[in-house]
Amino acid sequence: MTWPCTLETERLLLRPITLDDLDFYVRIQADPDVARYISTGAPRSREESARYIESTIATYERYGRGQLAVVRKTDGALLGRCGLARLELMATPDGPTARAGWQMLGGTPLGEPNEVQDELGYTFDRAAWGVGYAREASAAVWAHARTVLGVRPVSMIHPENVRSLALAQSFGVEFVDSVFSFGRVFDLFRWPAHAT
Q1: Least CB-packed of 38, 60, 124, 143 within 10 Å?
Q2: pTM
Q3: Dist. CA 111–CA 91, nearest whole Å
Q4: Domain count, the chain
Q5: Nearest residue to 29 (alpha-carbon basis) of 49, 3, 58
Q6: Reduced to 3 states, what is the DSSP secondary structure of residue 20?
Q7: Contact present, 37 and 164 (Cβ < 8 Å)
């Protein structure tokens, strides 16, 4: 299996998330500024963060995908997460504007026709914003997706998340369509097949 894996960049180590990481993810996912553009946009409780980690580990085992913990190499500090989630999409639009999408294990309604994409996403502690960690981690995941897994990931980005959009656009992503997920609409972008 080529995922989950350990990836290394100049400053970062990306490794599988474990239950030992719970306290860190509880803290950052409870931060309203961090939570604003992920899933429902609401801060997560400890129980919700625990379920997130359990689902991530189950996704590793079942689908060979999932977010990775991002660790700073100089001091071993956890900074966030970045990786490839399993994104299930309805094959046809759900209403006039967007088709529905699910990221959680078993999220698609039973019997619903869908397509499956690899979704490149990331979330970082607010203290780690603005120093290029998200770009560095995303570049490593994108390179692994292209060269090892042979896939072109997509990214689901909330339309108001200008920082995340600017980061993705700097890699040359292309708009695909809109997706209704977690009770709100996100824009879906496709990553390039090759480095630009």
Answers
A1: 143
A2: 0.91
A3: 12
A4: 1
A5: 49
A6: helix
A7: yes
Does residue 36 belong to any structural domain of this protein? Answer: yes
Non-local (6+) Cβ contacts of 63 within 8 A are: 86
Range of the domain at 176: 7-190
Residue 16 in any domain: the answer is: yes
110 within domain boundaries: yes
**One digit per residue, pLDDT tens: the chain, 196 residues?**
578 899 999 999 999 999 999 999 999 999 999 999 998 899 999 999 999 999 999 989 988 999 999 999 999 999 999 999 988 887 665 555 676 676 655 555 555 657 888 999 999 999 999 999 999 999 999 999 999 999 999 999 999 999 999 999 999 999 998 888 888 899 999 999 887 6
- The CATH number given to whatever domain includes residue 143 is 3.40.630.30
Query: What string of H, E and C letters represents the secondary structure of 83-125?
Result: EEEEEEEECCCECCCEEEEECCCCCCCCCCCEEEEEEEEEEEC
Is 1 part of a structural domain of the chain? no
Tokens coding 71: 């660790």
Backbone region of residue 14 per phi and psi (left: phi > 0; alpha: psi in -120 to 50; beta: other values): beta
End-to-end CA distance of the chain: 28
